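Exercise 7.
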Amino acid sequence: MNTKEDVTWFYSSIPPNGFVKVEYDDHVLLSQDKVLHMYNLKQENSGQYLCKVGHTVMAPYFLEVVNDNEPIVQASVYVSFYGIYN
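Solution. The predicted structure, written as tokens, is:
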């Protein structure tokens, strides 16, 4: 069974600039059920997110922050099984 420590999230900006490991802080948290929670989103948070559980990489998530001047109650992400360019 995988543990919370087996879950790693990666981020790449749009346009793609390579993936970096997501750093957790007061605004980016990993919950007990291994879900990435992000608060106080800014436009620089827009991009592609990948979750790696153990040795398995999940389908990418794409997040676009359209207007960071208005409060966001909940954001829905687009999941693609083919990638951003398909």
